[in-house]
Every structure is written in C-alpha cells, then in structure tokens.
C-alpha cells in the first residue's frame, strides 16, 4: 500500500527534510500520519489592539513588512521579524533561530518568497514586552491562510510535536499536511456498526483531527478514538493469547493435597492470613484445573508472598514435578534460597541456588541433577535462563518481582518446560487499569492484608543528616540495627560507585566510629555480599550502608530504622519498598527520608510517604507524578508504545476496549473476519507470540 512508502515519495518534502524526519523515527508516510502531537497550544482570536503582555493569542492580519537579520554581535543567531496589521493596529512577530540551517541562503529565500507583503497570516503566540517595539508576539506559529479562513477563524489549536535537534515543529506540521492528502488510502479496521454503537470517530477523520483540530470537541473525539485503538489492540493480543492458552490442555497434573503440603503446614510457626489462604486457594485451583496457570500475585511489601509461592512449589513437587523460582537480584535469590532451604530440609526436598557467580563445578552438578530429576527446586537469578539449564520435568515457574523482567525472559523460562504452570509475583502493587494494560493475559490475585502485629513505620522527611545520625545512634545503643541507603541509581556507574564508597568511609570513620558499619553494593562479589548480609543478619554489623540492592526481599527483623539519603532522587514506589526493610519485627520502626532538593514538588512528593503506608495509593501517586514509563521501566511491551493514552485517566476507554476485544475474540478467535485487525496487530508488534495469525 502506498502509505508504507518512504516519506520521500511525498511531494514538497526535500531530501534534507526527509533525513531530518527520519531522526524522529519517521520513515514511511504511515509513520508520519501516526506521529501524533504531544501537546497543543490553544489560542483565542483577538484584535491586535487588544493584545496584552502575557496573553497567548491568535491574530489575523496582513503582512506589512518581513525581514531576516543576524545581529552583528551574535552572528549565529537569526532573527525573523514580520510586521502584521489588522484594522485596529499592527504588531511585530519575532522568531529566533540559532541552528546553522537557518543561516543558509536557501532557507532565507524560502521564507522571503513565502511571507510576502500583503499575504494574510494567522499568527499564534505569546505577547511579550520588547524594548524596541513595545510589545511583540514572541516565537509564534505563523500560518498563511486565505480570506475565507480568515473570516472563520475564531480560536486556533496548534499541534506541538515531539522534536529533536534541528527538526522544527513547522517542518513536522508541513510534512504531516502533505501526508494527510493521502489519508483516504487508510481503511478503518473497526467495523462501522461497532464504531457507531460506541460513539467512536472514524479512523481517517480521527487522524486528520488529531493533527489539525478545527476545534476542541473534534480534538477530544479524535483523541478518544485513537486512545481506544491503543488500548484495543493490546487487549486484543492479550485475549487472543489467553484464548489459545485456555484451548491448550495442561500437561502438568497437580494434586491439591498430599503429605508434603500437610507436613509443611504443620511445621509453620504462624498461621496464614485469610488473604494468603484465599490466594493459595486460587493457585491450587489453577494448578489442578485443565489449563496451565498464568497468575500474578500482587501484595504489598511484607504481605507474605513467599509462603504462597512455596505452597505452589510443594504442590508441584508432591505430584512429581520440578519447580524453578527466578528473582531479579542475587541478594533476593539468595534470600529466597536460604529461607526455602530451611523450610524444605525437614521435608526432604532438594533445593539449589544458581546465580551468575555460582562456581563452575557447582553449576555442572546442578545441571546434571536437574536433568535427571534428582534436584526438585532451583532458585536463582537470570542465570536460570542459560542454555545449559535443562529440567527433567518442569511443572511450575515462579517469577518474583516480575515487573523487573521482560516478557521475553519470562517466556524463555517457560519454554524450559512443557506448558508449565506460571506464578508471578510483584510487590509494586499497581492500579487495576495498569494491571490490565500490562498483564491483560494474566489472572490477578491480591494479598491485601498484612500479617498481624506489623508495626506502622514512622516516616519523616528531613533535610539534615546530623539529627538522623543521632537518632540511629540511639536505636543502635538500644540493641537495634539500621540501614543507610545511598542513592546509587546505576550500579554499573563507576563515579556513582566511588561516591558511595567515599560516603561509606565518612560514615564509618567520622560519624559512627563506635559501631560496626558495613557496605553492600551490587558490584561486590557474591561472597562479599553474602558476608555483609550474614553479618548484618547475625547482628555482628549494626549499620548496613547499602545501595538499593536491599530494595527487595532482605528480611532482618531487628533492623528498626532506615535512613534514605537523597530520597528525592528515588521514586515513591521504590522508597516504599525500601521502607519495607524495617518494621519486620515487633519493634517500633522508623524511616527517615533525607531530602536534598529545595523544590516544593520534591518535598510534597516525599510527604506522600509520611501520610500513607498504603502501597496501592503510593504507587498510584508515583504513577501520576512520574508517569508509568518511568515507574515500571520500559521493559514491558505495550505501555511504552502509548502516544496518547493516559493509563490512569482513560479507564473508561480501557474498559470499553477490553470488552470489545473480548466480544471479538469470543466470536472470532482467529480473527478470520477481521484481516485488517491482524495487520494492525502486526503493526503494533503484538503478534510475535501468535503462530495462528501469521
Ligand atoms: P513479601 O510479600 O514482601 O515477599 P515475605 O514473604 O518476605 O513478604 O514475608 C515477610 C515476612 O513475614 C517473612 O518473615 C515471613 O516469614 C513473614 N510472614 C509471612 N506470612 C506470615 C503470617 N501469616 N504471619 C506472620 N508472619 C508471616
Ligand atoms: Mg518477596
């Protein structure tokens, strides 16, 4: 189809401009049509005499004068001035350019021939004070229009595109305009009756209006349609996939009861919360049904997800299968391994740990035992994905902190078994809308209750270190322990790491010379990490200075205070996770957030943590403040593709998209009647998993 042709087939686009557009990832005509504005500026039309400094407005008038100069003092700068006049007065419209391109004679000639005296223009911009002219329209949008348009224009909405160096908004606007000429070649995959029924605008029209909205209501309707599409195809792909999964028989037959589970329950030192019991029921139900389980367990930090996973593991093992548990960091994998090993030893279930730093001899032994089936449970990091890791009969895959892994990695581990059951867990609870968007193909269970007796963690935002150090000293003297977290965001960054080590030495020698202070970071060898954690766990170390490697999993109940340095650099969800390192025992616990930012926003953001301990609320605030892309990372497919949708505010459209996708999959699971939707799924890159559609 013509829309898939490269943009240089468009008339009126120079080679140079095509190359500039390619910098934005725009290669084909279709890319251009789907390159949506990131924002709009809305201008009210006013008479020139009515312009006030500080206004944003559109004026319409005739060009009286046009000049382009470079001031001798600053020859790299190009200043374009148009004097525009209407019946009530005149105003200077000034634009400033400092890219070499605007020095070229070619550009000047183009401009001079475009904006000739007497032409009618619509100019939209901000009114600013000017030493020479009194007031000017500063860096405005200028559009040539005809008399009819001049009469009809009341307000104007100017699209603002995402840009990069050397690419101007005007260039994109012009290119889009010429691509829009070919819009009629685009066919809407959504049948008309469905569109009508749900008040969705036709696709061609929506694309035209998103770029060139004649008014607010058309823009809103266009956005509604396009946001719908963003949700719809993602949900469609999830539901198709789920449909296939349900159609496939589970080969893994699990018995819900057995001696192993009974023995395990009887040796548990506490009783399960009702939320844990409910989720375990969900899981055992899934595992004993005819189709493979694909379930996500969400539970706030400390809600006790590990036990729930362990029950699933035992269920698989007592039915003769093996289980794998993958965690995103070595520290967390080790922690799981240690816990699981102590629980499983009396039950006679074999467990091993496999990480990047497992020694060769050990690794070979594990590989061999896995293949014979001698080894029942393998806990580890990404190392589990290695080619040499082969199971005799893998029946269950558990992935902890699953949002840290990509879809591919998850799939890779699943492929090591024959349609094994899958249990994923996350401690970053997310709102339902986002859960549907990210994991629309999963069943979701919530552990929405903490084990009894948990302390509220007293949280305070502070702006000086010294009182915090005194507070820590006081806690340690009482026999407790403390974490101090340093803002090493990127573990691999050498400079960051050095700064962390310097700070550690300061704490060690200057602040806390009387205590044993230890350092933990991601670049230490596994033996070193082990030693640091063990000695902290055994209270041989009182203060553990650490990077975010302790963010998840580390469980030392005697630790009662956590000080987070440069807390303003972390996301709220992450701070909430870090805070969960304390308050794990029966002692009153504290979280001190050292704010080094002076902005009111940073303070307000951190204060959310003072007020709330509700992981869902906090993560929603985090999503609102920083955006889902940043919070969730870009690893999950789908979410980063959204140009227009706002996961938190477009819930109604998400629900509509999901229910329509559901209806379509029900009646037409291979999309035979919707070949255009198949093409659209391919365009969104959502079909790789689905052989039936290829
Ligand atoms: P998370 O959900 O953050 O992974 P964990 O599974 O690590 O939480 O559990 C946190 C702590 O709570 C562990 O020490 C665990 O043994 C304990 N725990 C789990 N369930 C219960 C319960 N029902 N009653 C008391 N303690 C529990
Ligand atoms: Mg956990």
List the helices and strands and how they pair.
Layout: H1 15-22, H2 29-33, E1 39-45, E2 56-69, E3 78-86, E4 89-97, H3 105-114, E5 120-130, E6 134-144, H4 147-152, E7 155-160, H5 169-180, H6 192-197, H7 203-211, H8 216-247, H9 259-267, H10 274-288, E8 294-299, H11 305-318, E9 322-326, H12 330-344, E10 351-354, H13 360-372, E11 377-380, E12 394-399, H14 407-414, E13 421-426, H15 432-439, E14 443-447, E15 457-462, H16 465-477, E16 481-485, H17 494-511, E17 517-520, H18 526-537, E18 543-546, E19 559-564, H19 572-579, E20 589-594, H20 600-611, H21 615-626, H22 628-632, H23 651-667, H24 675-683
Keywords: ATP-binding, DNA damage, DNA recombination, DNA repair, DNA-binding, Helicase, Hydrolase, Isomerase, Nucleotide-binding
InterPro entries: ATP-dep_DNA_helicase_RecG, DEAD/DEAH_box_helicase_dom, Helicase_ATP-bd, Helicase_C-like, NA-bd_OB-fold, P-loop_NTPase, RecG/Mfd, RecG_dom3_C
Family: Belongs to the helicase family. RecG subfamily.
């Amino acid at each position: 189809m013509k829309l898939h042709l490269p943009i240089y087939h468009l008339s009126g686009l120079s080679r140079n401009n095509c190359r500039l557009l390619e910098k934005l990832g725009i290669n084909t005509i279709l890319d251009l049509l789907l390159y949506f504005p990131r924002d709009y500026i809305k201008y009210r039309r006013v008479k020139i005499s009515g312009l006030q400094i500080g206004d944003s407005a559109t004026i319409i008038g005739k060009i009286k004068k046009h000049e382009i100069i470079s001031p001798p003092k600053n020859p790299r700068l190009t200043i374009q001035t148009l004097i525009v006049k209407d019946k009530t007065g005149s105003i200077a419209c000034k634009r400033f350019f400092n890219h070499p391109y605007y020095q070229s004679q070619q550009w000047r000639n183009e401009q001079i021939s475009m904006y000739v005296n007497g032409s009618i223009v619509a100019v939209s911009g901000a009114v600013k004070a000017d030493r020479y002219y009194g007031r000017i329209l500063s860096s405005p949008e200028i559009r040539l229009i005809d008399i009819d348009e001049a009469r009809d224009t009341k307000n104007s909405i100017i699209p603002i595109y995402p840009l990069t160096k050397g690419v101007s908004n005007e260039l994109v606007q012009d290119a889009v305009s010429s691509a829009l000429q070919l819009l009629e070649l685009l066919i809407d995959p959504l049948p008309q009756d469905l569109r009508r029924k749900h008040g969705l605008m036709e696709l061609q029209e929506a694309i035209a209006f998103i770029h060139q909205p004649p008014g607010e209501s058309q823009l809103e309707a266009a956005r509604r349609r396009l946001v719908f599409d963003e949700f719809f195809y993602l949900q469609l792909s999830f539901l198709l996939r789920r449909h296939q999964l349900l159609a496939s028989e589970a080969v893994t037959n699990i018995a819900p009861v057995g001696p192993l589970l009974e023995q395990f329950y009887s040796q548990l030192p506490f009783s399960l919360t009702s939320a844990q019991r409910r989720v375990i029921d969900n899981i055992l139900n899934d595992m004993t049904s005819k189709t493979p389980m694909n379930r996500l367990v969400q539970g706030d930090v400390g809600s006790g997800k590990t036990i729930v996973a362990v029950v699933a593991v035992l269920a698989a093992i007592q039915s003769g299968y093996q289980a794998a548990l993958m965690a995103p960091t070595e520290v967390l994998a080790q922690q799981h391994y240690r816990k699981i090993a102590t629980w499983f030893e009396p039950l006679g279930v074999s467990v091993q740990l496999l990480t990047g730093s497992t020694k060769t001899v050990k690794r070979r032994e594990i590989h061999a035992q896995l293949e014979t089936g001698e080894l029942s449970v393998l806990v580890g990091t990404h190392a589990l994905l290695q080619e040499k890791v082969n199971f005799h009969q893998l029946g269950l895959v558990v992935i902890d902190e699953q949002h840290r892994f990509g879809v591919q990695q998850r799939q890779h581990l699943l492929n090591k078994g024959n349609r094994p059951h899958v249990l994923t867990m996350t401690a970053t609870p997310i709102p339902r809308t986002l859960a549907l968007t990210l994991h629309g193909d999963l069943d979701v269970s919530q552990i929405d209750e903490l084990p009894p007796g948990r302390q509220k963690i007293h949280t305070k935002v502070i702006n000086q270190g010294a009182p915090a150090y005194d507070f820590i000293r006081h806690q340690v003297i009482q026999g407790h322990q403390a974490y101090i977290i340093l803002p090493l965001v990127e573990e691999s960054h050498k400079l960051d790491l050095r700064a962390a080590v310097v700070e550690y030495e300061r704490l060690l020698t200057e602040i806390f010379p009387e205590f044993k202070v230890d350092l933990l970071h991601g670049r230490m060898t596994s033996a070193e990490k082990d030693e640091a954690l063990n000695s902290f766990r055994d209270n041989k170390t009182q203060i553990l200075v650490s990077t975010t490697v302790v963010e998840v999993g580390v469980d030392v109940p005697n630790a009662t205070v956590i000080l987070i340095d440069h807390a303003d650099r972390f996301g709220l969800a992450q701070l909430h996770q870090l805070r969960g390192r304390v308050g794990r025992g029966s002692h009153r616990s504290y979280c001190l957030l050292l704010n080094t930012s002076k902005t009111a926003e940073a303070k307000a953001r951190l204060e959310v943590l003072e007020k709330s301990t509700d992981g869902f609320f906090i993560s929603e605030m985090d999503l609102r403040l920083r955006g889902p892309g940043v919070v969730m990372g870009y690893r999950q497919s789908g979410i980063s593709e959204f140009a227009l949708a706002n996961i938190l505010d477009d819930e109604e459209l998400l629900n509509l998209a999901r229910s329509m996708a559901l209806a379509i999959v029900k009646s037409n699971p291979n999309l035979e009647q919707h070949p255009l939707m198949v093409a659209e799924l391919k365009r969104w890159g959502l079909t790789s998993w689905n052989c039936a559609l290829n």
